[in-house]
Sequence to fold (176 residues):
Amino acid sequence: MSPFIRLLVSTLMLISVTACGGLTSSDDPELNSLEIIDTGGSDSAVVGESNLLIDADENTTSTDDGEFTLYWDVVSDDDYTFDLYINDDDRINDALTIYSGVCDEDDDCNEDQMLDCIFQDDLNLVCDDFNGDDVASVDLGFFTDDFPEDLVFILQVCDPFGFDCEDRSIEARFDD
Fold:
């Protein structure tokens, strides 16, 4: 067999193995869940996504005015990056970044991660990280000043190089 034919056959075999998922990395991060515990204590993992309410109104029956928790679970044997966005739809394009980070060998990132947040009467969304440090302040008036409004949280995890990304989204109704 000529060297050209061997090269052609080898290339075609490599393409077919790759196309069938044969040479993908098992170290890519796997995003298992993105959940919300809303202002009233409803957990999206239990009640589903419908009727989640983030309510900043101090005059409602909620005991935690505007407070809620976002949590997610990623499994990865390697470092990865994550970005949390909010938008009025489930697309990352034109979304506002709430929080970005890197999970590396110094972090314990194969556990549930979480952000405690509060939606304030001035339409600002403020979040604290795992250590209680303020990491985000986003003006949700960017989307509208006519609340209630349905907004979507989007979490994207990627390998350290920004490839092999996976994302999940979850919707909640915001009311001031």
The CA atoms of residues 50 and 172 lie 8 Å apart.
